[in-house]
Structure formats: C-alpha cells, structure tokens
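Q: Sequence in, structure out?
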Amino acid sequence: MGLAAPVLREVAAAPARPQVPYVDFQAQYAEERDAIHACVDRVFTRADFVSGSAVAELEASLAERCGTAHAVALGSGTDALIFALKALGVGPGDEVITAPNSFVASASCIVHVGARPVFVDVLDDQNLDPSKIDAAITPRTKAIIPVHLTGRIAEMEAINTVAAKHGLFVIEDAAQSISSRYRGRAAGALGHIGCFSTHPLKNLGAAGDGGFLTTGDGDIAARIRRLRNHGMLDRDTVAEWGYVSRMDTLQAAILNVRLGRLDNVIAKRRANAERYRTLLDPAFVFIPPARAHAFDTFHTFVVQVDHRDALRAHLLAQGIETFIHYPRPIHLQPAAKELGYGPGAFPVTERQAGRILSLPINQYLTPGQIETVAAAVNAFYRSQKAADHA
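A: Exactly. Output:
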C-alpha cells in the first residue's frame, strides 16, 4: 500500500514554503478551488451525502480507465485489500505471499482475515521477485499480493504464470499505480482483483481517505458492494455480517473532478522523472530503468544511494524535502515478530531499506526545481568523492 496519514503530519511539520516541496497541496487547491467549491455546493444542495450519484459515476469511470467490468468505491485502499481477500475465501489457516518492503497494509490485510503473510524478496526495482515465489509456496498458500510500488507494475507475466501453475489467486496491490500499464493492460486488470487507494497523496487523491477495487467478476463485485454496506441486500435484509466502508459522495465528487485531470498529472510527473534521469549522475544514483513493455506513473520517485541519511540532511538544509518509503521493512516491524522473520531474511529488501530515498516529483514542480534537486544531489556525491581522495 501507499503512504498513510502519519506522513501528512510530517509534511505539515515541515517549513511552510521550502524551496522544493515534496507535495504542494496549496498549489493543488489554488488550481482546483472553483471546481471543489462547486462539488461541495452540489452535494450539500442535494443532501446527497452517502452512496450518491457521484459514487456510481466514479465507479463507471474507474472501471473504464482500468479496463475492468466493475469498480467498487470504498472507504480506503486497506479495506479494498481486506475485502478482496474475503471475497476470494482467504481466511484462517491460509497463507498469502507478498512483498516485505511495502506500506504495512499490504501485510496487515492478510492478518485481518486470519491468514498468514509469507514474504518474498524483491528485485532491484523494489517489486516482487517472481523467481523467489515458488520456494515460498506451501499447501496452505491461497493467493499472491504483488505490490506495484512507486507506480511501477510488478512483473505480472511471470507472477501470473506461477500463480496459474499452483492454482493461486492474484490480488494486485495497486494503491500507488492508477493508470500504470504493463504489456498494454492497466493496473487493476492484471489479476483476479485490483486494489487502489485514493489517499490525498496519491496521483488520484481525495480530500480524505478513500479507495476502490476493480474486478472482472460480477459476483465478486456484488459481494463487495454488500460487504461495504453492513452486508445488506436492501434496507431491511442483511445477507451476511458486513462493514461500513462506503465512499462519501463528496469524496467521489472531488475524485470525479480530479480523474479528468489525471492524465495531465501523470504526464507532468513522468516528465519530471525523465529530467531526473537526464540530470542525476548514474555513478552515484541508481534509478530503476524504464521498461519498453511498461508505463510507469511515478506516485513516488525513489532512488537508491549510499550515504542516504547524510544526503537527506544535505538536501533539507537547502530547502529540499524528501521522504523514505519505507525505512523499516514489514518483516522487521514489532507487529510482525510472531511471523518468525529476523534480520537477514530478505537481503535485497534490507539493503534497499538503508539506501532508498524519495525525491520530490509532484506535478507542480518546475524544471528549474528539478534541476536544483539534481544539482544538489550530484554536488553532495562529488564532494564526498573528493573528500575520500583527499
């Protein structure tokens, strides 16, 4: 899963106007102010607060964008993952394979349905290593949750081949990858179910928590719609014990506005990424290479570097905000102690955890700001190199 609420507090605590902000909600609001006010007025005028017409409109648009028959709007991306597992019958005694370097929700969703997370190490690009999956499969394995980290889709062709061989479900954790594509197909259409977040920091973000789920299976979609609304078939008939995970109409209305602007947002972020590729010195900075068969959307722009913490301090001193997604792998979190993993269990993940750094890539940055970041990074390493040879 993607960035969660605690990061917003860190952003809020940063200087009011850094030279290069990691996110720029003020610029976003200035651009969208009139449209957002119109959404509020429309929803309040209709008193259409829960399960309103904007939700159905959003679901239809999301299904079309993702190339699936169905999209179901929910209260969060975490709920999408939990409901996906429930809809596929994953529960106590089952195991689900996923990556250890994601946001904790990628694993906690498995725990919440009573199953056990089983981790597999990742490739240099931080996505699940398909060659490691076979060895992690047991008679209890029920599903695989690949995480499309940073807006870069995992190698789904190989993952789906392994899953088909063993009769496993595939649930895409696509929280960070709306509109990313892989071999001509969109995120959310590459497994049995796709799960997305619309947290404010996502490329398609609401003004609060939200998420949605995509699937080609009408029965799954119908069950998710029941689960999100107390398990009700209608106002007076409860088919199963459910939950409350309805997307607010106001959030759906805002997302409808932002969905119309999403292609432009992605184009700007991709342009920023390409500038970084051109400007950052590859002798010091590793950037996962672009793939001809994929279209990356850059929810984050994560580089891998030596002396990461010193570099981050150097950049902050120049008014350049950065973040780390994520500094402690899930298998080393206190909550995961009972799973039995320890340091050294996943060497690629653990090495990356000390080297990854998310540089600013938001759509409001200017080319000059990207140049400022790149120049500061390059200068830091050239200074380090000179000091090493002094």
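Confidence is low (pLDDT under 50) at residues 2-15.
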